[in-house]
Amino acid sequence: MKIVQIALFFASVYGASAQTGCDGTEPEKWYPSGGSDWTNGFCKFERQCNGNYGAGFSTELACCQGQFGGQTSGVCLSNLPSPPTTSPTLSGGLAAFWYPDYDTAWPDAGCLNTLPLPFNANDRPTYDTQLDCCKAAYGGQSSGKCLSQLASPPTTSPTLSGGMAGFWYPDYETAWSDAGCKNEMPLPFNKGDRPEYATQLECCKSAYGGQSSGKCLSELASPPTTSPTMAGGVGTEWY
C-alpha cells in the first residue's frame, strides 16, 4: 500500500509539472502583480512558468512601463529603488514646468514647480516659464502675489529709478488738509482705485485744489507761494 501511495505522489507532482511546463529551472523575472486592481498594481520578481502574465521582463522599470504605463497613481514606479517622477525634472527635484497653485486662495497664490506634484497628469495647465503661468492663471491679480515671486519681479506700474512710480497719486490715508501727492512704491491701492497724474503739480491742483493749508504744494521740489509774486519775491498786493 505504501509503495502505491508513493507512486501516486510522484505521479501527481510530475503530472502537474508536465501540465504547467515547470521544472524548477525557469529564470526569475519581473511580472505584473495581476488582479483587477490595475490602479494599485505593481511588479514582482518571481519565477513563473504557466505564462499567465506573459514572458516577463528583465527589469522592474521595463515591467512598469510595459504593464502599467499611464498609471496615474504611480504605484508601480514608486516601488523602484530610485523612483522617477511622473514628469521631467530639473536638478534639485524641481519640475521642468510651472503650474498654478490651486491649493491657495487666488489673491494669495502664485505658480509652483515643486515636486511631488499635488495633482495627476493633465489635471492642471502647465507652462514653460513662471511668467507665462502668472500671466495666464493670475492675470488681473490685484495683489500682484504671483508676479512678486519672480526672480526679477516687475512692478504692477511703470517705475523710475529708486523704486518710485512713474506717476503721482493722492494720499487718501492722510487727512485732506494735511495730505499731499505721492509716487512711492509699493502702491497702497489696487490699480484703477485712485486717479493718477503725470506730475506732482497736476495731482495737487486736481486732488487738493483749494487746500488752504497749502500742504500738497509745499511738498513740490520748487513750491510756489500761495499768492502770485513779482520779480524779487514781492507780492502784487499789499497787506
UniProtKB/TrEMBL annotation:
Signal sequence bounds: 1-18
Record key words, sorted: Signal
Region described as Disordered: 219-239
Protein name (database record): Uncharacterized protein
Organism in which the protein naturally occurs: Thalassiosira oceanica
